[in-house]
Amino acid sequence: MTDGDGIVLGTNQYGKAENRVVRVYRDTPRHRIRDLNVSTALRGDFAAAHTDGDQRDILPTDTQKNTVFAYAKEVGVSSPEEYAVALATRFLVAAPSATGAQVSVQEYVWDRVEVDGQPGGHDHSFVRRGTETRTCVVTVQGRGADQRVWVVSGLQDLLVLKTTGSEFRGYLRDGYTTLEEVDDRVMATSLTARWRWSGTDGVDLDAAYASVRQQCLAAYATTYSRALQETLYAMGRAVLGTHPQIAEIRFSAPNKHHVLCDLGPFGLTNDGEVFHAADRPYGLIEATVTREDAGDPGEAWTAVPAFA
Amino acid sequence: MTDGDGIVLGTNQYGKAENRVVRVYRDTPRHRIRDLNVSTALRGDFAAAHTDGDQRDILPTDTQKNTVFAYAKEVGVSSPEEYAVALATRFLVAAPSATGAQVSVQEYVWDRVEVDGQPGGHDHSFVRRGTETRTCVVTVQGRGADQRVWVVSGLQDLLVLKTTGSEFRGYLRDGYTTLEEVDDRVMATSLTARWRWSGTDGVDLDAAYASVRQQCLAAYATTYSRALQETLYAMGRAVLGTHPQIAEIRFSAPNKHHVLCDLGPFGLTNDGEVFHAADRPYGLIEATVTREDAGDPGEAWTAVPAFA
Amino acid sequence: MTDGDGIVLGTNQYGKAENRVVRVYRDTPRHRIRDLNVSTALRGDFAAAHTDGDQRDILPTDTQKNTVFAYAKEVGVSSPEEYAVALATRFLVAAPSATGAQVSVQEYVWDRVEVDGQPGGHDHSFVRRGTETRTCVVTVQGRGADQRVWVVSGLQDLLVLKTTGSEFRGYLRDGYTTLEEVDDRVMATSLTARWRWSGTDGVDLDAAYASVRQQCLAAYATTYSRALQETLYAMGRAVLGTHPQIAEIRFSAPNKHHVLCDLGPFGLTNDGEVFHAADRPYGLIEATVTREDAGDPGEAWTAVPAFA
Amino acid sequence: MTDGDGIVLGTNQYGKAENRVVRVYRDTPRHRIRDLNVSTALRGDFAAAHTDGDQRDILPTDTQKNTVFAYAKEVGVSSPEEYAVALATRFLVAAPSATGAQVSVQEYVWDRVEVDGQPGGHDHSFVRRGTETRTCVVTVQGRGADQRVWVVSGLQDLLVLKTTGSEFRGYLRDGYTTLEEVDDRVMATSLTARWRWSGTDGVDLDAAYASVRQQCLAAYATTYSRALQETLYAMGRAVLGTHPQIAEIRFSAPNKHHVLCDLGPFGLTNDGEVFHAADRPYGLIEATVTREDAGDPGEAWTAVPAFA
């Protein structure tokens, strides 16, 4: 791996990113869909490809793509997590030089179109729900008895806003402080969260996703917030408190500032009524809530953007 | 406007684009919000600013911005359309050299967070709904008795997908044709629509938006589609058939191609089950559905992107 | 086109958008490339497709795509404009029901990688130049002796910034004015321009593009600006003054505000040294500079975003 | 940090992201600019803010923002790296509970506008150069004699394309392989790289950036590539071979696939002349080139996206 000058190959990985797979289940007239964006990565001893251009150990990213599409049929998508485990496990079979495989999935969720006289919505017509994306990152390491599987589930870009029930006061001051304390403000964020499973045996992962999302929303709504940090911590406690198989949850939350407009020059009051929704800069608050006995995360977070 | 060489100023306009206004109604504990992106433009005789740098007739874009925020309080936002009419009318008062004003609004819609034991959702916590944006473009021309007002309402980026009930056959062929006919396909689009009102007297514009959106969704779901054109036409007829004060509706619909994967090389069948959701290129289908007696649109569509 | 209720099809068009064509010229070891994004649209009598789902007059967008790629070889890309004229003309041959065709091209420009000892850069390795995109929109209407061709060339997203030589004073004031006059400011924009040719006979369109771009840059740099309007007008005069075959030019220029930071609270002066580059809102200044005898633009601007 | 149920706060950080600072040096008529996007983050013992909403140890993100702008004047921006070191060090002084601070900077590079008769370009008018962004991430940990500083420099989105000199053959095959070998192809990427300095004493960081960028471009151009992996390794060796103070370099390179179009159905040959530039999926190749004696990176890569 070296040319004698002490310059060598370090860690590396490769795969096919953003395979846009749509899986339709049409065994009954009431179709179901899973709309996915799947990225794969293999890790291991691929030095020859780098140093000598020798591809003999390389399972091409095109083959990884084919497997992604084929497995949508062959294995199916009972949940993004289970489908990702199947794919990552397959890659370790197909590529003997790989020591680990990571598969990331984004899922776009669709609702059925509501049509008069069709309770529960239309059989085969759908409209995209919300702004958030469901995610998972699955990492499989090793083979045989030593094989380890880590599952991280998540959501990204869940846009929430509260018009009151938030303050920001009593903070540290220095010579660069100009901010005034506020005891009532708009607080908004675009929440990203990732939760690591200690194990998924017996877990209905679709139901778990809906539950975690709802726990986050409810904690956001009902927590009086003295800082976004406090809200994130409350969300994390709510999720871990109700899901014993979740070992830890990581949040990344931009503080989407809503600036109260000064309407005084125009002879108008503004008691929390008119705000400018600013773009940049934004606060960025990131935190982990974990069980004390969460255990070593192993490779669960390798190459996953921090914090979420 | 000329320097004697026959090169002159032509049409022009200026304004402040993308004012991000959030208006909170908090007169009761059950808050309401309007989350808006407002753009303004003035037209008229502003030649001196161009040819001589003379700003005396120019109402600065900064002042337009201030008015946008002040009017969110002073006039309020009973609907994006009514707020835009108030703003455009104001600009013609403030800028005597302006002959016309156009105000465009995008509205991001929020749902209340569902919390246990709070029927109808939380009082002051919200979560963004869907992917689509509500829009309007209001144009006001002239002053006094000659003043004319045009209102165009719309929606953009309404993502819909149907897994069956669509075919594409019997088309024109030439030497560059390779496409094979399909009698069952996925059809998906990100719908943008704009509808011009012949008048808005007595119209509940919030209710009308919900109704037009639902008409489009239902027509999309229930029309067997031999082409995206046919679906757009059905949508347009549904909307005009139920809203007598809408003079015309314009659609722009990218055909978001879902390509059936060939799984044959892997010994798998694929009966409409696994698709690749392609990015580019995409079909782009644009059509207007109008009343025969719709009348001259005047300035309603000036500087509005075609078709929608 | 009607179902007897007075609701009918209005204007419509369809085509294939964003075909990403890369054409490599490799007849000598010194390769050349044209990197294009091509969108097509056909207009005419396509009512049956809308009202009855009858596709017999429809040249599929898939066929339009095939033609786009085939013509990159068959006709070649001597300039984006000439290639677009060939395509639009072809579509009118292929689709008898079409009365007009419009082809839009974006071109991404590449420089050769500089390598030691290779004057003029590497033979076949390229690096993307600048932020701006070259554009054209070609419209062909009619057939035979009546056929008309309109060519509009352009550039978009040319990012420029000047650190002095700009003021903003003497503007109209009203009750919503809070802006203070400035006699020295940063002025920045992301320029988009489109220029309509009265004819392109004998014009080297690649050279013309480079010249117009340079005229705009030089006018921007050397014009003392009392408003962005004055700068646009100076650019337009410079372009029309040197290119007699350009009939008119349209500019769209966001005023990318750079706000002087108040460093006073920290005991610091700020004499035009530290700015916050704001995102939104932004001024949007749009203007046309034209020849008095420019003549009727016909269909040149149909469905082209205003102003540029 | 616990409520007795074993659920506790884990790692966390907070700061102000994307402060858009433009610093103008105008001490001579020939102005210079630094156009920056600055993000800050503090780490340490901020548990009380999460668990009790107690802000007493929290230096607000608003104050961090003020410091970012003030330091652009007070300290200046001799290079993004030196400015970031000053900021991170300052934050550890200002926030006693912080144990570490990380400051990330993106820099947008501008060229002078070329104007007739002004050798070297215009004094105060600029046009944005290229597509790539210069980056750095600086991490400062601890205080006093124990304080450690890590500097990572980088570039992102350097778009390169070569029209020949690349093949892909001899790869591993399995039951999902359909890819055919190619011995001549277009290879393109949007390169992101980050290099960690073992130390920056005596390094001209602006010159180093230009040099690393040029090393990457030249290696890309002149390496015959049997895989993108081989090209990345060649780049890394070139950079480390010429910059002894760089300990390691990490690359992330999407393989922007250019698919040869099948023009056979139209009776045309296509000898590497017409390609479709595909969007998704794309290969994603990531690799580190390092010195064997690079030493422990410490906190240099904490919270930095892998690989680059």
UniProtKB/TrEMBL annotation, chains A, B, C, D:
Pathway: Purine metabolism; urate degradation; (S)-allantoin from urate: step 1/3. It catalyses: urate + O2 + H2O = 5-hydroxyisourate + H2O2. GO terms for molecular function: urate oxidase activity. PROSITE patterns: URICASE (PS00366). It comes from the Bacteria. O2 binds at T61. 5-hydroxyisourate binds at T61, D62, F168, R185. Urate binds at T61, D62, F168, R185, Q229, N255. The active site is at K16 (charge relay system), T61 (charge relay system), H257 (charge relay system). One of its GO terms (biological process) is urate catabolic process. Keywords: Oxidoreductase, Purine metabolism. The keyword Phosphoprotein does not apply. Pfam families: Uricase. It is an enzyme of class 1 (oxidoreductase). Its EC number is 1.7.3.3. Catalyzes the oxidation of uric acid to 5-hydroxyisourate, which is further processed to form (S)-allantoin. Belongs to the uricase family. NCBIfam families: urate_oxi. PANTHER family: URICASE. This is Uricase. It comes from Ornithinimicrobium cerasi. The lineage of its organism: Bacteria, Bacillati, Actinomycetota, Actinomycetes, Micrococcales.
